[in-house]
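Morning F.,

Quick status update on the modeling queue. The single chain you submitted on Monday has been processed. Sequence for confirmation:
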Amino acid sequence: MATLKEQIIDVLSSKLRFATAEKKLDNIPAYCPFHKSGNERKPSLYVYVGPTKSDKQATGSSFCHTCQKGWSFSGLVRALDIRRSFVDSVRQIIDEQKTRKTDILSRVSFALPSVPEAVLGAFEYAPKALLDSGFDKTVLKEFDIGFDHERKRITFPLRDHLGNLVGISGRSVVGEYPRYKIYKDEFKEVVPNYELKKGRILWGLDRFYFSRMQAQSKVDKPVIVCEGFKAAMWVAQNGYPNVVALLGVHCSEEQQVLLSRVCNDVILFLDNDSAGQKATWSIARRLSRSLTTYLVQYPKRAGANAPDELTPEELKSTIQNSKTILQRRIRNG
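Structure tokens below.
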């Protein structure tokens, strides 16, 4: 039977050219396909195929020293357009061989049950409602957004910071209640006793988590924190890829820990309603104990109640003019 290392290399070899398949190496060098049209002279991408030792050294994760970008195993497979079913077959073995270590400095847990990647195959349709509202196909693909024809819901995959699929949220396009629904009953047969604790994830963090953990880029690049899916995607589409969503107006202890791992500065960009503004000040006070925290000031016009309701020009100006708590208080007298 092929080893885990051999299976990872076998799955990726259909789209990734390895410089060597030396069995003794845990970091296998490969020629990065994401710059210079895949024709770089020296391999700059490394795939870690050893046992998971930490979030920084997770089996199947990778990092390109030229792109300064990292991927989880599932993230790299998606970026290379490899079939989702391959992720499930390898991830099952990764989970079986994973040795979990307790961080004595951490009081929080990020453990969540995984959902098979293959379930997303049923939702691989570009949602017309989001396209009509101005979202690019490339952004929808980056966030893996789909459409559930049976339930008439736009599907938003929920991933932990390591890229594992841990759930799906569906947004109704026909006015059904609730508007947003986390699929639970749908997974009972494939994931026994399925339960999702959304406070353990920051939506969208998996897209740049490994980049931040490997590269020393977190010092000068803040992470923008939004409430929901559409807000985060609109921010990313308009030039700010380091963006996450809380999936609500509460920031859990787990989410605070994740933010502190990947950045020194955060920009709170919650919705411009009473709940969002109240939560902004509450979250800002807690985050500012360990992170430099900036708050945005929405433009004073009707209808500017969420990031995705701003024009690209308004959004950029709002982010660029964000202020710390002290600066806001001084400004507001």
